[in-house]
Fold this protein.
Amino acid sequence: MEENEKEISGFSKLTKRDKISWLAKNFLYASPVEILKEFAEYWHDNVEAQKLLDGFSENTLTNFPVPFGIAPNFKINDAVYAVPMVTEESSVVAAASNAAKFWISRGGFKTHVISTKKVGQVHFVYRGDKEKLFSFFAGIKADLKKSVQPITAKMEERGGGVVDMELIDYTLLEPDYYQLRAYFETVDSMGANFINSCLEEFGKQLAFRIEHNAAFTTLEKEIEIVMCILSNYTPDCLVTAEVSCKVEELGTFDYGNMTAEEFAWKFQRAVNIARLDPYRATTHNKGIMNGIDAVVMATGNDFRAIEACAHTYACRDGIYRSLSECKVENGIFRFWLTIPIAIGTVGGLTTLHPLAKRSLELLGNPNAKKLMEIIACAGLAQNFAAIRSLTTVGIQAGHMKMHLTNILASMQANEDEIGKAKKFFSDKVVSVSAVREFLEKLRIPG
Ligand code: MEV
């Protein structure tokens, strides 16, 4: 191992301690002993449990703890859930909990899965007669499907498999480029490995069958498979969640004597703004994803996939828009969210990560459809809480409360100091220096 070099080969082969020591020497200021001590504080006491975590990734040095919290009182299709949420953002769990509590006495969340289709693509280059290619593809479609039976047999037993496939001509946009787009049902698994295995076989089969068919010319036989991969855009893996009540049931608002009716209209206006302006829509949808990602994380699912898909879906008509909608009509307030969520409840981390497993147990070991519904409700709750704050007291009031709590904790404030600080800052701007000054004065003896 080279000392004091920022470049290294064979890093992955070093022991965990040597990796840390090398990093400390070359990139950090504290001594290797101190860095090792700090990193080791986050190692799991149980060696086997640590081995499991290490196995989820590579070059693992330690664990990076993120809070695991619970938003209780979620009434979803008449069942009540305590929803696990993993997030580092303060006030996300509090906001979800508040919204859930608010709606539990107003009928709760109603939700259903619209569709569960997933998508994969074989991207290929073919230089030749288009019609020949399309009619050949139509002829071998059933055989292609059969060719992946060793991969699909188990999935078919569970009610999934390859649903359909089509050939798409993209040659107007990219010379000689075609796409085999396949549709899959993966039941309770996210299905990424399943889909990718099928796609790679489709690619091989397609190339082989063209190469060995006398109807194709030498040039046509030189079909080139560019890549085979699932698409994270799953507009037909869709779930919708809704809350509604009579406008007068929205209650009263402390803020500026606002009536329920004024609140309903203002809320609808805020959502409409997010439907027409991409700048606002991005922040609005970020609020939705605060709730969605936290449950996706807690259940061991891939939040990057869910994020990527949600934002593509948000601009499906060419303009990036809010994923949620609101309507105040005939005295009824309706607020709903429709979003693609491709997740699983079997396979991957969902069963391997002990806390993801526990999260699923907390939710009654749901199937994928039920989990899609729960996640959509968490997104809608989060969005409701954000828009309610924004259109009434403003977002800073809640954020500042959490900020104050965090600052007080970092300054080791006791119960008495916390109570006094909360009272003092109830109508003042919170900052680290203002809280320090307040505590210093309070701590002066006598
Ligand atoms: C902050 O993480 C999320 C919000 O900005 C969402 C919104 O503005 O709707 C509060």
Observations:
- The CA atoms of residues 241 and 377 lie 6 Å apart.
- The pocket of (R)-mevalonate is lined by residues 89, 283-284, 286-287, 290, 386, 390, 395 (CB under 6 Å).
